[in-house]
Every structure is written in C-alpha cells, then in structure tokens.
Design brief:
Layout: H1 2-23, E1 32-36, E2 40-44, E3 53-58, E4 62-69, E5 72-76, E6 82-86, E7 90-92, H2 93-105, E8 113-117, E9 121-124, E10 133-137, E11 142-157, E12 172-173, E13 176-177, E14 179-188, E15 194-198, E16 202-204, H3 208-211, E17 218-230, E18 233-243, E19 253-262, E20 267-288, E21 294-303, E22 309-317, E23 320-324, E24 336-337
Antiparallel strand pairs: 1-4, 1-7, 2-3, 4-5, 5-6, 8-11, 8-16, 9-10, 11-14, 12-13, 14-15, 17-18, 18-19, 19-20, 20-21, 20-24, 21-22, 22-23
C-alpha cells in the first residue's frame, strides 16, 4: 500500500510539472529578438477587443519575443515591461543587421547632395516599395544623399503614349506590359543611419542662385568648388550634375555645368557645360597644380557605349575649366561649351 501511494504521489508530481511547463511555455522563454518598425506601438495586457495598456514601444526599440498568438506577439522590452503587440510592427534581427551593414559599408561615401524629406517615409534595406524597412523618418528630416538606384513600382505599368498603339514594341516587352521604374536614393539621416528612400520623397537643398537655371532639367547633385571674394562677402562657385526630368534612366546624369561668379558684374555665369552618360559618385577636392597654385578639381565617372566606366578629372582656374589628363591619356573630343553670358 505504501509503495502504491509513493507511485501515485510521484505520478501526480510529474503531472503537475508537465502541466506547469505547458502553461508557462512561451511565457518567459525568449523565442527570438525583434525590432519595432512602427513609430509608436501600445503594448496590451492581453489579446482582446478590450484591454489595459501595458506599456509603449517606439521605432527601433529592441524587444524579446516570448509568445505568438495569430497576428499578435507577446514581447518584453529592455526595461522589463511585457505585453502584446501586432506582429506587423516588428522586423527580424536579420533586417536590423542589414541596416547596420549598410551604415557601416557606406559610412565614408562622398555626399552627392543634401536634401529633406517631403513626408514621413521609411528607410529601406534595398530599393523598392515592398522591401523590408526598419526606421521611419519624419517629414523635414535632413538627409545626405550618397547613391542612386532604380526599382520597379509594384502593380504599376507605363501608360501608353498617344503615338504608340496597344501591343506595340514601344510599350511592351516580350508580350508583357512595361513596368514603371522609380528612382531611389541611398541616404544617411541625421542619426547617422543609412538606407534607401524613394527619390520623389526628397527635396534637394539646391541653392536658389543656381537652381533657377536648371532649364527644365533635374539637378541630381551639386558641389561647392570654392569661394571668391566680392567686396565684403564670399560667394560660392558650383559644380552641378543634371539629367532629364524622369525616373528609370540607365545613367545617373547626362550633363555637368560649372557656375562661376563674375565679380565685376556680380552675377553667376556658366563657365563650362558638357554632356555625357555619367554615374555617381562625383568627387571634389583641392589640388596643387604647381604654377597655377592650389585649385579646385573634380572627377566625373563616365560610361562608354559598352558600359565601361572611366574617370575624367577637371580643374577650375576661375573662370576657366579644363580637363586634367592622366599620364599617357590622350585628349578626346567632347561636347562642351564655355559661356560668358548671364546664367
């Protein structure tokens, strides 16, 4: 009898241990680590239409996932608060690592332009509206623009032109509608985070003095080459990089213009213009040219007909811009123009 009671108590103990383990499964054990992609999300004490607020998590917060329930997950925050939130407001450790890698890999990239966001927008890990994102950037956020790329707009096709007929090769490829291609910028935000942003969500901070002479073209990048003294003030001289005003082009820009300041007439003039199929980045520096002294120089990367990219260096000895040939390099005929008329 005594042995029977011992066996019964042992079975009861095992039953309670198993029951307790089942009840606590997922309650304290960390299933995975995730990050909050929403701007601000309320934690619920339980999953129901009526609930108590258990806490708040914000964009970029790291949380530990403790349990899953359909579209909700139970999380624990860094300060120990626990609660339920919708799964759609979380991204994985992998996405966080991708953003970290983007930031590290592009930390020293030359800035091509500066701008600000038109609206609240997302910082994506790759170009494309359907790609993963973690951080959200507020409207008016200042950005440094680093690289350009393109991606198809999901669910959109190019509209038929008036001159083209439905089904023509001009509007279809291999029997399929032509997709809409959008421009994207790799940017660095004010928190030093790097990611991809839809280009049309960014307004470039192009100086009005030169922006007004874009002549219907889109200014892609701009650089201060140097400054000249005009009376009691210093005035910047600029290199601008332009392209056609549309997305999806196979090059980053197709024209460069240098604006110099005419001290006598107190106005900007186009000192140099050249057309080419160019790719970013453009780099600007100061260089010692012996007898001419230290002058601003810049390097443009140009595509040839075979898609090969070569570098071209230029120097500005105000108001003249000239090519700087590398040892053994032969001069090539370019479409360029020097102009002294008002711009």
């Amino acid at each position: 009898m005594k042995r029977f009671l011992q066996q019964l108590l042992s079975c009861i103990s095992i039953f309670f241990l198993l029951f307790s383990s089942a009840c606590n499964r997922g309650r304290g054990r960390v299933l995975e680590v995730a990050y909050v992609s929403g701007v601000q999300v309320t934690l619920r004490d339980h999953v129901a239409a009526v609930y108590e607020k258990a806490g708040v998590v914000k964009n970029g917060d790291r949380v530990e996932v403790l349990d899953h329930d359909r579209r909700f997950v139970r999380v624990r925050t860094a300060d120990g608060a626990t609660g339920w939130m919708e799964q759609r407001y979380l991204v994985s450790q992998e996405v966080f690592d991708q953003i970290q890698k983007l930031t590290a890999d592009n930390q020293n990239d030359p800035v091509q332009a500066r701008g600000a966001t038109r609206n609240d927008t997302n910082l994506h890990v790759e170009p494309g509206r359907d790609t993963e994102h973690l951080y959200q950037i507020s409207a008016g956020e200042k950005l440094s623009l680093l690289k350009r790329d393109t991606a198809e707009k999901p669910g959109a096709v190019a509209a038929l032109s008036r001159a083209a007929k439905p089904g023509s090769k001009k509007n279809e490829q291999d029997g399929k509608p032509v997709p809409v291609i959008e421009d994207w910028w790799l940017v660095r935000d004010s928190h030093n985070r790097v990611g991809w942003v839809l280009a049309r969500m960014i307004d470039l901070d192009v100086p009005l003095d030169v922006a007004q002479y874009a002549e219907g073209q889109r200014i892609v990048a701009f650089f201060v080459l140097n400054q000249v003294q005009d009376g009691d003030k210093k005035v910047a001289q600029y290199l601008t990089v332009l392209t056609e005003p549309k997305d999806g082009l196979p090059f980053d820009f197709n024209q460069i213009r240098v604006f110099t300041w005419n001290v006598k007439r107190h106005r900007y003039e186009t000192a140099y213009r050249e057309r080419m199929e160019g790719v970013l980045p453009v780099t600007v520096s100061q260089e010692n040219f012996e007898k001419e002294g230290i002058l601003p120089s810049f390097v443009i990367r140009v595509k040839d007909d075979n898609g090969n990219v070569a570098e071209r260096k230029y120097k500005l000895n105000t108001p003249i811009v000239r090519r700087v040939l590398a040892p053994g390099e032969q001069p090539v005929r370019t479409v360029s123009r020097k102009s002294k008329r008002r711009r």
